Amino acid sequence: MEIRDFKVGDKVKITNPGNTYTTHSAMFFKLGFRNQDKNRAWEIGTMGEIFEITLYDIFNPITLLALRDEDGNECLISTEGVEFILE
Questions:
Q1: CA gap 1, 83 in Å, rounded
Q2: Which string of DSSP letters, residue by residue, matches 21-41?
Q3: What's residue 69's pLDDT?
Q4: What is the pTM (predicted TM-score) of this model?
Q5: DSSP assigned state of 71
Q6: pLDDT tens digits, 8-29
Q7: Which residue from 20, 7, 8, 9 is spatially nearest to 82, judged by alpha carbons?
Q8: What are the E-state strand segments in 1-87?
Q9: Distance, C-alpha 73 to centroid of its chain
Q10: Taking 60 as the threshold, does the pLDDT of residue 1 lie above it?
């Protein structure tokens, strides 16, 4: 498995939607989500672009990615639920 640093603008594909945070309004606000109440999990294979990145949980840090697809839908997911797409 390749380990890499994700950055804003990278394209990723959903591999495990179970790693999605659908109702984290404080994080949605912090990261600038349009809908700061609820954002649905995406289907496996859905592709999106990272528009923001943050660490969550100071004791057991998890990198969270704020994603936007081509239709403008947004999703908050940990790096464990995505795969980097080479362009």
A1: 10
A2: -SS-HHHHHHHT-S-SS--PP
A3: 97
A4: 0.90
A5: T
A6: 999 999 999 999 999 999 999 9
A7: 20
A8: 11-14, 47-56, 62-68, 74-78, 82-84
A9: 11
A10: no
